[in-house]
Design a protein that fits this description.
This protein has helices at 2-33, 37-44; strands spanning 46-55, 58-60, 65-72, 75-82, 89-101, 104-118, 121-125, 134-141, 144-149, 155-158, 162-166, 170-179. With 180 residues, it is α+β, with helices and mostly antiparallel strands.
Amino acid sequence: MNLIHRSQIQMLATLQVFGILALASFAMLGWAEEPSVEALKARIEGVYVLQEWHRHGEIFRPPLVDARTVLLNGHIMFISHDWAQEPNKTTVAGYGIYILEPGKFSYRYERSSMVTQTAAGTSVSENLPWEGLRPFATSIENNEIRFRAKNGPREFRFTAGGMSYSDGNQVRVYRRVTDK
């Protein structure tokens, strides 16, 4: 009876050692697969052309709506034309910077202009859409890079062929037309 008890203890100890080794190897595997900032940059930088703009249950496509987004060397540029909201026609243009760090993406606009045409005339606003950096947590899921806002429903999703941006009310889907 003593041998059975001792063998059970040895078996439990062996299983614990294997369990600890398995957990440690999974932890190291996850750590080793975390891409560097430079590798992430290479996967997100490029020129993106709008394919679809989802808003209020409708899908709009060029030429009714059109947009470009450029991410390159720490800079971001965005321009959009929206003629889908009759009678208002809106053009938005902005440029700024982005910062990519381990586990974190942030960006802000340094200049922004919005031109709105209505039947009553044209108005121009040069107010920034927000002040300061807008922070996002980064992750990789199913070979897709995701930047999720730390304070709201905003999200960027990058794949090899494109990008999407959503803010909880609308989704813009882009095709990547060039790497950096």
